[in-house]
Known about the structure:
Layout: H1 4-19, H2 22-40, H3 48-56, H4 59-72, H5 81-97, H6 103-128, H7 132-151, H8 161-168, H9 176-194, H10 196-206, H11 208-213, H12 218-243, H13 256-266, H14 277-297, H15 301-332, H16 347-350
Helix pairs in contact: 2-14, 4-9, 4-12, 4-13, 4-14, 5-6, 5-7, 5-12, 6-7, 6-12, 8-12, 9-10, 9-12, 10-12, 13-14, 13-15, 14-15
Organism: Streptomyces corchorusii
Keywords: Cell inner membrane, Cell membrane, Membrane, Transmembrane, Transmembrane helix, Transport
InterPro entries: ABC_transp_permease
Amino acid sequence: MITINEYGARTAAALRRLSRSTTTTLLCVTLGGCLALGIASSGEFFQGPSVRTFLQYLATPVLIGLAQMVALCVGQLNLAVGALGGCTACLMGVLMADGGVPAPIAVAAGVLTAMLVGLVTGVFIVATRINGFIVTLGVMTILLGAQYRLAGTRTVDGYSPALKELGRAAPLNLPLVFLTALAVAALLAVFLYRATAGRRLLAAGGNPLAARLSGISTDRQIVLAHTLSGLLVGVAAVTATASLPGVNRSVGGDWLLPSFAAPIIGGVGLSGGSVAVSGTVLAAFVMRLIDAARAQFSLDPSWVNFLIGLVVLGTVVGGRVHQTHLEKKGKAHGRTPPAPAGPGPTAGAALPNAGGGR
């Protein structure tokens, strides 16, 4: 039977762990950033139109961050996120504007195409044993060419008005595209934390050898991770197409850095075996706040990428220093501590696991 003192001690320990978590830190940063922007804009930031615009353009960063997170959880690096999203958006726009394809069919075709590209990428990595970094770099180059072939130098804007209305719809100033992103994040969290297939993904990424000894095929998990990543990119392309006035060859060109920044800042390790859905969503929110601050104070856009890149590098280096400290502490006690769940190894340490599983 648990006594009152034991229950109080457990509660206090849980609260201490929560206060030290990355998610709690990001939540505090988000609330503080919103308050600061609200004060700087004399309350305009909290008005309906501003909230609607802010959340409307937050949906895509959330989804591409989740897409990269799924690849990272098995030790993969997906460099094709932006190119795949831009190519998918252009494909849907061309199908609707030039081919007269109904919006539901064009959207379904775009999402399925993105998922198929992810599937082929994963199969190619497993079949050839080539480093996933190299494979996704090649896929990115191919998709950039395909995107230019689809859109050329024009902006495709004559597609379905219904899809554009869907992108602008915002009941109670909550855009439907943002609610869609949150729903996708919730479903992904249930899959990763509760479903057997999701736990196998994390097991294969955290300890491939132990996973294989347990009967889990690491090759299948790599293919599944890239397929799921492609699906999420496809949904991101839908939200982008619905929110933007038109699509062209520049869509997706600035997605790569945010796709890595959101999960890494959110607490996902580069070596695999960990996910942080809520942390990734909050990190995307913080980056969107930085972009809103840039517009509010008329800052040079290059400073935004500089600041985000600096935060990403600081997070990775900090995680590496923390892990080194734990290893030294473990040796001092005659044992080796387990690897922390947060971002620890550097990108270079993750590359050996970025190829196909064995």
